[in-house]
Amino acid sequence: MSDSEEHHFESKGDAGASKTYPQQAGTIRKNGYIVIKNRPCKVVEVSTSKTGKHGHAKCHFVGIDIFNGKKLEDIVPSSHNCDVPHVSRTDYQLIDISEDGFVSLLMDNGDTKDDLRLPTDDNLLGQIKDGFGEGKDLVLSVMSAMGEEQICALKDIGPKS
């Protein structure tokens, strides 16, 4: 092989290495996070069974998907590792709402973030539209996990100055 030949490797997919981290099932508690059926969930119930004749205690998790609110369940041996999503919340100031339902948000570095849709939750959607229509300064909390982002809350910081 000569030195002039170059090799290009293309990655065929994301291994998801930075989206989750492993944690032993027996250490995951209520109000923590867990991945069930490839969805990031908030744990609402954990029950652990006694060790059976095959020697593993099992953890029964009930979680609510943090983006769509669906209830998911999983049973895992307590000594095994589960995937736990990296969940973060970031606050952005609302600048504009477009005709097609996207929001324009001001980031800390002065750039704008224009790739988020308005939330599907009618209550939150109404609060955002009403507050924006009244000319209030609104700060939207955006939850992100496993490559997904969604507006999950808002704060009213008063009328625009």
TrEMBL record:
CDD domains the record matches: S1_eIF5A
Record note on modification: eIF-5A seems to be the only eukaryotic protein to have a hypusine residue which is a post-translational modification of a lysine by the addition of a butylamino group.
PANTHER family reported for this sequence: TRANSLATION INITIATION FACTOR 5A FAMILY MEMBER (PTHR11673)
PROSITE patterns according to UniProt: IF5A_HYPUSINE
Limits of the Translation initiation factor 5A C-terminal domain: 86-155
Identification of the protein by name: Eukaryotic translation initiation factor 5A
Keywords: Hypusine, Initiation factor, Protein biosynthesis
Tree of life domain: Eukaryota
Pfam families per the UniProt record, alphabetical: eIF-5a, IF5A-like_N
Region span, Disordered: 1-23
Biased amino acid composition, Basic and acidic residues: 1-13
Family the UniProt entry places it in: Belongs to the eIF-5A family.
Family annotation (Gene3D superfamilies): 2.30.30.30, Nucleic acid-binding proteins (2.40.50.140)
Protein function: Translation factor that promotes translation elongation and termination, particularly upon ribosome stalling at specific amino acid sequence contexts. Binds between the exit (E) and peptidyl (P) site of the ribosome and promotes rescue of stalled ribosome: specifically required for efficient translation of polyproline-containing peptides as well as other motifs that stall the ribosome. Acts as ribosome quality control (RQC) cofactor by joining the RQC complex to facilitate peptidyl transfer during CAT tailing step.
GO biological process: positive regulation of translational elongation; positive regulation of translational termination; translational elongation
Protein biosynthesis found in the keyword field: yes
Keyword Protein biosynthesis: yes
Organism placement in taxonomy: Eukaryota, Viridiplantae, Streptophyta, Embryophyta, Tracheophyta
GO molecular function, a single term: ribosome binding
